[in-house]
Design a protein that fits this description.
single chain; alpha+beta; BirA Bifunctional Protein, domain 2; three-stranded antiparallel sheet; 10 strands; binds 3,4-dihydroxyphenylalanine
């Protein structure tokens, strides 16, 4: 076994030879280093000399630790280059609202002109509001259309991240009496693979209009006005028969743009069952609802070919869209 004297001598030599500081640290201070070895040897020292030996060993250890610490700081300092302040490449740029937020504000403005106010609902929803109250019972095949992100809820309520903004219709009906004219913009969540036209999280705008005369032609008028204001030109619109459990009849709204029809929204006359679920029993109350995706609209408006760019937080993308005037 190596003696303390031998270690001290070797340590002095290593310092003289400027042994690399990490190597030195390892050689003396690591778990299997000399100091650890010497400590292990204490048990073999005769009792009268133990205390003196221990003290000497501790002093040596401390000395090496200080030497290592001092040399490491020097090493760090020599690696720092001090830049004069005028060499720092700092650019200050003001941030801005995302194109989606700006588009939602624009949509709110247009609908405000028609007397619609803005309603909000929770993103963490119950199964009851997201599906059942909208006439989509558990066994209904239409549930498969909305790939759902379920959330564990300790209270035992079946919870999910809302798959659409339609549940806001029910919340609003429960708390307000007709006439009702609202839009409900917000985030929705789908459990599906992303590609250039699908994202897991995106935004929808829901619309609901209920009174004693709101009809399909009222709806057509509203939707015509909306697209005309948004695109700042007349837009040809087509209603195609479709199916949603919460509307009857239901349709798909297509707009004619650059020589083709683009599917842009789902809509319909609110199903009587849904009105009743929302607490509206007056048979004279009727109306329409609609829902569309904001990112999809943004892609059409701004010529974006991949939905994933929109929330990518890529400054090159954001700064291009920042220039667009709505
Ligand atoms: N909630 C539907 C969806 O996410 C869109 C929708 C269709 C909303 C028809 C409506 C409606 O209000 O009447 O796909």
């Amino acid at each position: 076994m190596i003696s303390i004297e031998e270690v001290i001598k070797e340590y002095k030599d290593d310092k003289k030879d400027s042994l690399d500081i990490d190597k030195l640290e390892h050689k003396y201070l690591s778990r299997k280093g000399y100091i650890a070895e010497l400590f292990k040897g204490i048990k073999d020292i005769i009792p009268e000399k133990k205390s003196a030996y221990g003290q000497k060993l501790n002093e040596l250890k401390q000395d090496i630790e200080e030497y290592v610490a001092k040399n490491k700081t020097q090493e760090i300092e020599s690696n720092i280059e001090i830049y004069p302040i005028n060499r720092l490449d700092m650019q200050s740029r003001l941030g801005g609202l995302s194109p989606i937020s700006r588009l939602i504000f624009k949509i709110q403005d247009i609908f405000a002109g028609l007397g619609f106010s803005v309603a909000v609902g929770p993103e963490l929803e119950s199964e009851k509001y997201n599906f059942d109250m909208l006439n989509i019972p558990e066994s209904h095949p239409a549930r498969d259309v909305w790939d759902t992100i379920w959330v564990q809820n300790p209270a035992g309520i079946k919870s999910l991240l809302r798959t659409h903004t339609s549940p806001v219709q029910i919340h609003y009906m429960e708390n307000n009496k007709p006439p009702i004219r609202i839009i409900a913009p917000g985030k929705v969540y789908r459990y599906e693979a992303t590609d250039s036209t699908h994202e897991t999280v995106f935004h929808q705008v829901e619309g609901l209009c209920l009174d004693d005369k709101a009809s399909i032609s009222t709806f057509k008028g509203v939707i015509n006005y909306f697209f005309k204001e948004l695109f700042q030109q007349d837009v040809k619109i087509r209603l195609r028969p479709s199916y949603f459990p919460f509307t009857e009849p239901s349709f798909e709204i297509d707009i004619w743009l650059e020589d083709k029809w683009l599917e842009i929204a789902g809509a319909g006359m609110v199903n009587r069952k849904v009105l009743e679920n929302g607490g509206i029993t007056d048979p004279n109350i009727q109306g329409f609802a609609f829902g569309f995706g904001v990112e999809r609209l943004a892609m059409i408006l701004y010529g974006i070919d991949d939905i994933r760019l929109i929330h990518s937080a890529d400054i090159r993308f954001a700064s291009q869209l920042g220039k667009i005037q709505l």
